[in-house]
Give the backbone structure.
Amino acid sequence: MLLLALDTATPAVTVALHDGEAVIASLSQVDARRHGELLLPAVDRVLAEAGLGLDAVTGIVAGTGPGPYTGLRVGLMTADTFGLALGVPVHGVCTLDALAYASDLPGPFVVATDARRKEVYWARYADSRTRVSGPAVDRPADIADEVKGLPAVGAGALLYPEVFPQAHEPEHVSAAALASLAAERLAAGEELPAPRPLYLRRPDAQVPKNYKVVTPR
């Protein structure tokens, strides 16, 4: 097994290689506006660090979000393209699940990432491997009663300490955690879903209400 994992659902552009036993190379860069520019060079650097070519990869793992439309689709489209070109399976893993896994908290706890618009993407976990609700997108104040007293992980938790006073690292997802979680689930015989995006809301860019379609005469 050689899994190439990548995630662009948060401001982190993150890539990792996992050989079925451990992460053998990884790279993460935080830049919310340069996902498309940074992702492929990051893949090249991780492969070079491991001394392997892309043709050695036997499977792709992509973080499915939730996340902003533009950033999230960069990773998912890249993963699908690699899978098609290499003829290997492409697996989807919820980005919040990878953050929960990396936290290694015993639970129960919450994972919350920044959804912008003064909202968070969030989910509840019984432990670092078991999601019990979500993901969803809400204003932090609207879920204050639901998350009261629970530790929280992620950039969303760090942004709103009045709602998440027990905020913990990591702030952003890492492909190393994504790959490790996927490898663990695959080794257990679990069938991972296809990498379908968890947008949870409409994209920011929309057609103007009074837009007129111009047809050629």
Q: What stands out?
A: The helical segments are 35-50, 69-86, 95-103, 144-147, 155-159, 175-187. The chain is about 30% helix and 25% strand. The radius of gyration is 18 Å.
